[in-house]
Amino acid sequence: MYGPTSRTSSPPSPVADPAAILAHAVGEIGGEARPGQEAMVAAVAESLRGGVHLLVQAGTGTGKSLGYLAPALAHCLATNERVVIATATLALQAQLATKDIPAALDAVEAVTGSRPKAAILKGRTNYACLYRCRSGGQPDQGALVGSGEVLEAVSTTADDVSRLGAEVLALREWVEEQAAAKGLADRDDAPSHTAKGWAQVSIPTRECLGVANCPFGAECFVEASRDEARDADLVVTNHALLAINAMHGGTALPEHSALIIDEAHELVSRITTAATDELTPGVLDRTARRALTWLDDDLGTDLLDQVDVLREALDESELTRILSASAPLPFAAAQLRDVTRRVVSALGKVTDDAERTQAAAAVKEIFDVADRIAKLSDKDVVWVTSSDILGRAAYVAPLDVAHLLRDEVFSTTTTVLTSATLSLGGTFEPAAGAVGLAAANRVGLEEESDNPLAWRGLDVGSPFDYRRQGILYVARRLPPPGRDGLSEETLAEIAQLVWAAEGRTLGLFASRRAADQAAEYCRRELPDFTILAQGDAQLSELTRTFTADPATSLFGTMSLWQGVDVPGETCQLVIIDKIPFPRPDDPLMQARKKAVDDAGGNGFMSVAATHAALLLAQGTGRLIRRSEDRGVVAVLDPRLATARYGSFLKASLPGFWLTTDGDVAVQALRRLRGD
């Protein structure tokens, strides 16, 4: 599915100048020329032309979206080949679709007279399923009143079941409107809904009947979205669908000759998530009961018995990585694999009974996960977790995704990876190695290569003057972080800094416990300030309040490290309580560290320190979001100044002016307030 596109009916257009496209786009949006953005355009264009992979670090404010869109669209016109862009999240997809791509397309048309086609492509569950909507029956009240009236009637008085029913009714009504209008029924365009509501109008990939067997296949929204993608020059997808494409032989994405991966610092994490499987007694029980209708009593009983076998094995397992094939979990998984194999065989490949076909697909998924756990492959990590809500669960994840990316992406497709944080410890090698690109295959910026795994690294800098705009304060005098929560000295330091900044603080903590502890202390010591803590309300609501009121502070954990963009005086102080090393009880990260050690490398630096450097770079990057921003990043972990690995971590951060004197940081914050 890789290589040149099959859209060969029209000849390639005259070569478009990426620099001219960029200049026109920047001019139309009222921007100014940025040397870093111009350097990025030239480097991406050369990578697409010459076939050498590129890692390009483009700091905040560079304008990296146009930095890759201009050369990508020029390449589409010049070669009549398709380019795929993969973003980290659906939100970034939406930003490209509504803002950056229209501006780029307008520029291309103005410069060349041609307007390439662009399309957005998401995973199956992001589109409504007509079979699920039309075969599930309508709530009784639907025949009497409209969905809007139902929602209003139950919004404050009905129980959860009634509210869900009204929500599903509204979604189904919207789906039919989409079908009549030849729309795509994209979840992002749907009426307000919960995850439970959307699950009633969408379908898991495994349970899809297939366009040939579905009674509504001719109207399928997923197929319509794929048709649009196949007809487009530029296709925007996300990391998760890119992972599915790599794992399933290139069947999820249309043919393409080049790939651009935005927010590439998240690629390994998101590919890992997509390749991770989960097994719980609850899921097994629900799946078994779906299949019972078509099973004889003996086989049905055997399948239901496996629920108790799995639960007992999980209860007997330690909450850590499973290494022994004789441990309870692999033994139970092997039994489950054998029983589900028989069930899948008994259900057969029936095409005229949709419910039976879907039940068989659900059981086949259980079989695949059980088989993977039972094998305990050296390439996988198996572990058990426990939570108050879900109880015990088994997980299996790839030890690394470097081989998958190397073999299924880089070996076949010219790829550009871009992010504000790709150079860790002052070098691109850690990020390149994590995705399967070896240091030995790095070539110079002007050097040509016919090696399909050759790559270049380029840092185009940032338009911000970090040394003038910000201070990095490392609290060398504080005690090192301990396991018993934040020390009194650290809590007092946090309160003093928040006082000096008069709020305006984003607190990034390694744990919810630490965030809550700091919030409680500051509320007590600084009663005139508003301190919000993650968990007080929905994160989106907390962020809006934090943005609207500069005197407010927001304390939270990992979801704030990368996802909050608050320019201006609302955020003039970023506090980081400790270096964000992986948790010592994280089975996957510890397994990856051990694998590097066993291979003769330095697992701590390759895995733990690199992980920490990436998060620190993302966290400190919350401070300066535009050229007018000023402030302080306070890292309250003295190891950044005292440990040998501290220099590696500091080399990964923006070039702030550095101090270990807390009084200097306090005075700087007071000056920002005019004191």
UniProtKB/TrEMBL annotation:
EC number(s) per entry: 5.6.2.3
PROSITE patterns for this protein: DEAH_ATP_HELICASE, HELICASE_ATP_BIND_2
Record keywords: ATP-binding, Helicase, Hydrolase, Nucleotide-binding
Sample GO molecular function, one term: 5'-3' DNA helicase activity
InterPro entries named among the record's database cross-references: ATP-dep_Helicase_C, DEAD/DEAH_box_helicase_dom, DinG/Rad3-like, DNA/RNA_helicase_DEAH_CS, Helic_SF1/SF2_ATP-bd_DinG/Rad3, Helicase_ATP-bd, P-loop_NTPase
Entry-linked Gene3D superfamilies: P-loop containing nucleotide triphosphate hydrolases (3.40.50.300)
Cofactor requirement: [4Fe-4S] cluster
Catalytic activity: ATP + H2O = ADP + phosphate + H(+)
Tree of life domain: Bacteria
Domain Helicase ATP-binding: 23-315
GO biological process assignments: nucleobase-containing compound metabolic process
PANTHER family according to UniProt: DNA REPAIR DEAD HELICASE RAD3/XP-D SUBFAMILY MEMBER, REGULATOR OF TELOMERE ELONGATION HELICASE 1
Family note: Belongs to the helicase family. DinG subfamily.
Name of the featured protein: ATP-dependent helicase DinG
Record organism: Tessaracoccus flavus
Record lineage: Bacteria, Bacillati, Actinomycetota, Actinomycetes, Propionibacteriales
